[in-house]
Amino acid sequence: MDGLREIFTRLKRIIIFILAIFVLGWGFTSYQDIFAGLIIGTLFGIYNMWILVRRMDKFDRAVAEGSKVRSLGTALRFASGVAAVAIAILFAEHIHLVSTVIGLMIPYILLLAERIIYHVKHH
């Protein structure tokens, strides 16, 4: 089974492709506020996933060494999500709130889909 860092590397490539599509949608359609929300949300979502991967590495090392286990950064990831929503609310005329929340979930949906595909192929 792949490590979380390898999975994250694969997902980053997919997310960069998705972000490119969102940027094209923002530039060439009349739904600029929706695509702006998706872009902001996805950027904050990948940041949250990066924090999770980094904290999981520290967690694994702490468990292997038998030292004290620290937090997985839940509060920091929650604050990041709140910041994305606050930006969408602050610039409501330019950024669609619901699409920002959807963008926050895109990395996690891709992670779930990647794991399902992995298990279907290997079992």
From TrEMBL:
Cellular location(s): Cell membrane
Topological type in the membrane: Multi-pass membrane protein
Sequence intervals crossing the membrane: 12-28, 34-53, 74-92, 98-118
Pfam families cross-referenced by the UniProt entry: ATP-synt_I
Organism: Planococcus halotolerans
Keywords: Cell membrane, Membrane, Transmembrane, Transmembrane helix
Principal subcellular localization: membrane
Protein name: ATP synthase subunit
One Gene Ontology term, aspect cellular component: plasma membrane
